[in-house]
Here is the input.
Amino acid sequence: MGLLGARLRRTLGEAPSSPAAPPAPPARRLESQLAGYDRAQARMTRWIEPPTEPPAPLESVLPGAVWETDAGPVWVVERRYPLAARHGDRVVGDLFERDCGHLERVVGDTRLTAFNGDEALFLDIEATGLDHGAGTVAFLIGLGFRDGDEVVVRQLCLRSPGEERALLMVLQEHLERFPYLVSFNGKSYDLTVLQNRLVMQRLYSKARSELKLRPHLDLLHLSKNLYRGIWADTRLQTLEANVLGLHREDDIPGHLVPTCWFAWLRYARPEPLAAVARHNLDDVLSMVTLADLLVVDAIPAPTGARAPVVSLNLARVLYRRGSFAHAQAVADAIDKSTMAPDELAMLHRVMADTARRLGAEGERAGALAALVALVPGDDGARRELTTVLSRLGRHAQALVHADELDRRGAGAAPPVRRLIERVRRRAPPAAVGPTASAVVG
Amino acid sequence: MLFPRPDLDDVIRGLAAGRLLSGDVTAHHVRLPRDADYADFPDDLDPRLLNALAARGITRPYTHQARAFEAVRSGSHVVLTTPTASGKTLCYNLPVLDRILKEPDTRALYVFPTKALAQDQYNGLKRLIDAAGADISTYTFDGDTPNDARRAVREHGHVVITNPDMLHSGVLPQHTKWLKLFENLRYVVIDELHSYRGIFGSHIAHLLRRLKRICQFHGSDPQFITCSATIHNPDELARSLVGEGERGFELLSESGAPRGEHHVVTYNPPVVNAQLGIRKGAVRAAYEVARALVEAGVTTIVFAGSRLHVELILKYMREALVRANLPPELVQGYRGGYLPNHRRRIEAGLRAGTIRCVVATNALEAGVDIGSLDASVLCGFPGSIASFWQQSGRAGRRNGKSLTVMVAGSSSIDQYLVNHPDVLLGASPEHARINPRNLFVLVDHAKCAAFELPFEPDETFGVLDAGETREVLEYLESHGVLNESAGRFHWMERVFPAHHVNLRGVPEENFIVIELDHDKVIAEVDFRSTHTTLHEHAIYHVDGRQYQVERLDYDDHKAYVRRVDPDYYTTAQTYSQVAVLDEAAVDEYGPLAVSHGEVLVTRKFVGFKKIRFHTNETIGYGEIHLPDLEMHTTACWFDVPEVIMAALPCDREALIDGLKGLSHALETTACVTLMCAERDIGRAVGDSSAGATPARGPSGARQLDPTVYLYDMMPGGVGLASELHKRFAEILGRALELVRDCPCPSGCPACLGPMPHYDQRSRLAALTLGEALARILAHDAPLAVTPLPSASRPAAAPASAP
Here is the structure.
């Protein structure tokens, strides 16, 4: 140790005998997961202590093979599953039987017009932090794809930082083989980190590796669109538990993932790296089965298998994307009998909106009437209904709603006042008088 | 019209003749006016720029602007030190914009110390670009830049204007997203270079090394164009901040801009207690000068050293206006934290004549343009020669006269300088010191750099050689922060290091001040000031109004105050203890050892005094219950061993007082000798035999080896301690002169510093002790110490400046 080193140790302190404890887990919500977390935490505490015996060789815990590249070796772990294999409740090969032509319409991205499972590369990285900075390293890249009658999950593992260039070159080979990327939140996270890494390793060129320009299906965005409001959130593990039928055992919680790699680096202890690989494997397979589920749930036509609320969400997203006829078809077919009132109101709203865009004023009036019957305080809808009825020449009905608007005090706003007056002028005298409750839509 | 047309000549004559003021005008210095020196624009300057300049009446550049253009074009780094309002920004804007017009891929990065300055600069640059009709994008990039705009700045900004903090935490760690900038970065402009001194400067030195490291990675090698106010060593500072390179630095200090006649008057307030040598307080005296100027119709800026003084002068000025049936808004306060809008209102008010006077802290010293005023009044020496000239330059016009009055305070340095005005007016401004070897700073930036790019084998970092760099990296590896793989060191933590490194050296969170009656936040106070200004029962001042602190929630960083109208204000009393951590070097002279090294300074907050407004008498005391503050820094120290003490013909109590007085004189002359600001050096007297306990023990009851510490006030130190150690004999010699030459009969605040009481015995003890030490130093003399004749009575008249 030189002079400066000695001064550093004296003034800034000696290295702690063991590194700092892993960070505390995030606040917990579910009692049942606590035990799992405790177990993970206990393992972690063991892993970040200096080992008392020589660590096991990597291949004995995480079997794989060395791939040679121009930039040196990289450790690749590969698992193959027959198409009929199950992951949770679902079959991993189902996606590859599906027609995915409709996805483009639901996602709103024309680059996905010819999307199909056979040409898709599923991608999920494990990195040293959630930050997007230059120092955040993707140390494990999980890739999933179809190879003949098997689904392959190939994991590129960084055994040491020096192998990163080789790892990225293998990644680039895969990116070139598959025209489509599939990820879960990859648009804002995985691809940003990978793009940084390509720059850092001088492998980046705008034409070849601008990852964000590639056709990309981000399952998080689609899940948010189709499954919003159903569970507390649409994180992958929430979806696994609720729709994929997968319950992970002794999974490494995400916030401990960086610590695992650091533990591997520090003590060459393969167990933490293997635990991350296991976590990543589940992520990749879950993406494959989730993609299949989403493809089915996104079919822009009536299907019996879909939950009403999912159909409602689909109708809303189709409406937003401008597919009004599909939105209407999906909405019309929904079984309203089991829907909650707020869902029903939303359904009537989207039906009214699609009818308006399709020029079906009669249907629009019907949907709006149903809406105000359900939510009598929705003055905006009632005003719209009044206008539509008046335009359709159904003056008597229009008058009922105009009177109701007036009674509720909505006439204080000048445009509403003018509407009320106009409707009253046009209404046949005989129709004046009945109470609002006597006439419905 | 409210005010007479200002007749500055009349005011100046009155001041110089002593008619306006009751104290002593010790110097009246006139700087003569000078005409402009013009040169020509380069032949190939883009015609769009020529037209834009012509449109604002600039047809020929000043000589320094033309020279700057040539220097930039020649490819060397540039240091500009021309005065305020000399057209400095054109010196860099012209060559940069011209190059972008010729090669549109060119990128430039401008760094200003604050967001406000960056915004000012952006506005000026944008006007020039628009006037030229040029297709050049310029953006500010700081914490206020919205997320969706950041992408555009990264992709399209030709000129990106930012601040060091943002460069540190928002640009460098994200350099992979700034490819376009870093691949094409040709110019880095660093204005207000002089503000990057001390610990801040040490951080900036590393920040700029990190910047250059990233540029190198992306294949660019930018040229640095730097601008500094007048300091002693601008080119040295630029070199140590930017680093030596093959380009070399060209220093441009000759200004071609015209300037008006400027008068500087140094003023010592009248003696109010001849026996104790106490003069009228500087706050009071500065207020009287400012009032006289404002009454004469002269627009005036008053600078005070602390927020408290700003608030006091503001209060006195406003009271005077109210007595004269004038609106108090004619005087405005100005200090750090005022928003740009507020500033523009003050600026507009000064132009319109609705504001006649601004009372400011040194926040107004740096580049912010508030227009030109007739006079500046300095309430006390601002702590450095460079600041003195900066503040003085706030008054001044390109044509017409201006005036600066420096009102001396009671501190030794003020008294020394007002009585030796040739030192003040003739001295070279200070050295701006930085210490990139400060361990705290070094290690922090090594972490940030490792996050940005792994360290290559044999890479050198900043001022370190390859071996030292490796020692730092290995140290970080032993802490699990880095990982070595094939000789390269990689970042290995999940945290983002820049978020944990504060360039301004104040990592602690600010306190907010809440007014209880309206439940409203009225101010924000930095952590270290909290202990002296927001303790319970403190009187806290905002905008000339007084509040009493009712409750301090230390853990939550909140102070609750209530509006009061007291006839007193409070000042906190603190004392410091020093513990030596590591002795770096020691010089032994017989029994006397002078050392320097690393120390831990603990500042304790013991109580506060209540002081009556206007009269400044102490009318009460209170206690402060706050945790100590600790600072790790460097110090120079010496023990006075018992053998020396015992040999002196003074009693023990007088010797302890004498030693304290001598240490005060040492602190003063240390500042003068090293040309550093008074606030840069701290002092403590301790007892080395008892660790870090204070010196004042039972008189003579036990053996004492008192130790005098002079320490660097910057955490980690900026290199003052080793300098003090090296020049200790010289500093001691000057301290002896200071005490010996002081005209007071028995010690006073100006020579021996603040003491509970002054008497002939402690003054004599200080001299006897100091002379004994000086003789030991000079001759390593044996301990046959006898009182010297010169020490037995005060000198008759002040001697010349050391």
